[in-house]
Structures are given as C-alpha cells and as structure tokens.
Amino acid sequence: MTRADFPLLAAHPELVYLDSAATSQRPASVIAAERAFVEHDYAAVHRGASEAVGRSTEAFEGARERVARFVGAQPDEIVWAENATDALNIVALGISDASAGLGAPDLALRECDEILVTEAEHHANLIPWQRVAARTGAVLRWAEVADDGTWTIDALRAASSRRTRIIAVAHVSNVTGYIAPVADVVALARELGALTVLDACQSAPHISLDLAALGVDFAAFSGHKMLGPTGIGVLYGRSELLNALPPARTGGSTITTVTMTDAQFLPAPQRFEAGTQPVTQVVGLGAAVDYLSAFGMDRLHAHERELAGLLTDAVASVPGVRLLGPEPGRERASLVSVDVDGVHAHDVGQFLDSRGIAVRVGHHCAQPLHRRLGITASTRASAYLYTTPDDVAAFAAALAEVRPFFGADR
C-alpha cells in the first residue's frame, strides 16, 4: 500500500498533497468497487423482489455492516446521510421536532435548557444548535478557548450547568489539531443528564474508534475525508435514541403505515433514509473502510504521530510563522494551521501551490475560533497515510520562502 495506490497521486508524482483534512484521495480499490457495482449490481435498494434489487441491497447493507464494525457500532446504529453536516442536522432537527411535540418527549428541550458547545467548533456543529436554541427557547452556551485555540474539560465544565441537556464537541479540531478528552466529556454529560454529540470528521479517518466504548450518544463523520466518495456521510446513534428521534426528512422508504392524516415510521436506520439512497457512494465507503482496515489503524496512527511531530517542528523552525493549537511536543492530529506574519493566508496558499504543494486556506468553517485568535484566515497543511516525511520537508522549505518572497521579513 503506497502512493501508487492513489490514481491522482500516481498521475502527478510531483504533487505534495497536504489537504486531506478537507478531502482525502481515493485509492484505486475504492474507485474500482464503485465502478464494478455500477456495471454489475446497480439497482434500487429495499424496493421490489427482483434478483437485481437483492444484489444491490446486499451491497448496500453489507457496506453498512462493515462501516459499523469499523467504528464499534451495530448496523442498526449507522444511518446514511449526505455528509457529516447533514448527519449533525438530522440530530438537531430531530431534537427540534421532539421539542415541538412530535414524539420522543425525553429528547425535548424546554425554555432555558442549555446546549453546550466550544468556541472551536466547525460551523456544522454550531449553526444547527443555534437554530435549535432559537426554535425551542433553549440557551446556547460555549466553552471559551485559550490563546492557542484549545480548550480544557475544566473550561467545558465551567460553562455547563444543571440545565445542560446537550454537549456537542469535535473529537479533533479541524483548525488546531487538538484532540478532545472525549471520556471526560462523556463523564460530564452523564453527570448532568445530557446527551453527547461528537463531530468525528477528523478522527474517524485517523484514529481507531469504538463509539460504543466511548459512550457518546451521537456521532457524525464523512466518507470523503476517509478515502471514500463525496456525497456520503454517517450518523451514529445509540439504538434506543435513534428509534426515539423524529426523522428530519420524511417520505418514501421510511414508513410502516400512512393515512391521510398520520404516518408511522420504521425502526432505525430506515426511518431516517427517505427517498432514493446514494447506493454507489455507500459501496465506495465500504471499500474505503476495507482499505483502512487492511492498512491498519494502529499503523496509521503511528505514522501520523510521526508526521504531526515533523509538521510542528517544521513550522517552529520558520521565523514569523505562528502555529495555531498545541505547541510542539504536545499531542495533536497530523495537521497544522499557521498564520504567517505580514502575508495573507490566501497569498501563502498560492505561493505554496506554485511550489507544487496543495494546502487549505481560509477560516476552515470556524470563524468564531479565528476571530478569537485575532485572525481572519489561516493556512492549513494536513497529512494522511500517503503523506511522507519528504512531503513535510518540501512544505517546510517552501514555507520558509514565503515571507522573503513577499518582502514581509524586512
């Protein structure tokens, strides 16, 4: 398993791809699985009694079983969504509907109940909760971050109260690489009688996950960040909670009985999977977790721990470059975001691109965090299993050229 497994990287051997936190590359085996399905087994799922439908449904549900095993869940705890943003919205909209009296009173929020997030959240794990608070009268509270953009369980506890009913946090920050103390978050939530919602977008692709053992109530992650296709995300939920949560979207394939005035819904996960499903993308995601499992998540974690150290050392070696998040030597994910003194992030990104290095620039869908850090944008380099120490060295060398090129070192 090498860089040659990834067609885009094989086609562009000069490319240093350091944007996997946004979208990872797909190995040939994933592309082949999608193509083979379309050519040989493509049909509707769960609709009809034909042999073709049976083959398609078997592929569709087989992928669900493999994804469930990959994250330590049962198949009926895995719901297909469009992406992680969609998955988080499914939870938020379901709680909003429950609060409006559409079933599941145990999930309902009352006026002055509290939803707790952190100042470091991706917009996908912030804006839905803003909407829920506005609709229900609940209060949105947040744990503030320190000057480096990280937060602590003490800060989360200080922002909580006996009215806290939901705690929603990212497992790994997509800006700072900070790894949240999930066990402590779950313990706090249980102490308060609150639900935990975990944004696992930056952890599921990189860390061996056992969501049941972690004890979170809901979690969300995306296929396109873990070697899979775009257009497919995953919502995990404890079975009893999914079956109590009102479905955010309704229609075909979700119901048992419909009258002109009412509808009864199927058990999870089908109750959330209205309409025609992204079957090809699901098959691709199944192949992606097969690839990751064969590579070995422990092996991947060790590889990325080395790269994280190289990335932080690289940034620390360049004058006038500020590292966001944990300082060198502290644990972090294999990504770094930087602020280059005197040079806008977009200019940094364009310069690096001219050197054949693909990175991410902007606020990374985390404007409140950037505002707290006193900047409008940052430049992010993120690694994955196909990233090499030579890639990091190329990044370090090019980063050292940025300020001199723009005359910001004078």
TrEMBL record:
<dbReference type="InterPro" id="IPR015421">
    <property type="entry name" value="PyrdxlP-dep_Trfase_major"/>
</dbReference>
<dbReference type="InterPro" id="IPR000192">
    <property type="entry name" value="Aminotrans_V_dom"/>
</dbReference>
<dbReference type="InterPro" id="IPR015422">
    <property type="entry name" value="PyrdxlP-dep_Trfase_small"/>
</dbReference>
<dbReference type="GO" id="GO:0031071">
    <property type="term" value="F:cysteine desulfurase activity"/>
</dbReference>
<protein>
    <recommendedName>
        <fullName>Cysteine desulfurase</fullName>
        <ecNumber>2.8.1.7</ecNumber>
    </recommendedName>
</protein>
<keyword id="KW-0808">Transferase</keyword>
<feature type="domain" description="Aminotransferase class V">
    <location>
        <begin position="16"/>
        <end position="395"/>
    </location>
</feature>
<dbReference type="InterPro" id="IPR015424">
    <property type="entry name" value="PyrdxlP-dep_Trfase"/>
</dbReference>
<keyword id="KW-0663">Pyridoxal phosphate</keyword>
<dbReference type="Pfam" id="PF00266">
    <property type="entry name" value="Aminotran_5"/>
</dbReference>
<comment type="similarity">
    <text>Belongs to the class-V pyridoxal-phosphate-dependent aminotransferase family. Csd subfamily.</text>
</comment>
<comment type="function">
    <text>Catalyzes the removal of elemental sulfur and selenium atoms from L-cysteine, L-cystine, L-selenocysteine, and L-selenocystine to produce L-alanine.</text>
</comment>
<dbReference type="InterPro" id="IPR010970">
    <property type="entry name" value="Cys_dSase_SufS"/>
</dbReference>
<dbReference type="InterPro" id="IPR020578">
    <property type="entry name" value="Aminotrans_V_PyrdxlP_BS"/>
</dbReference>
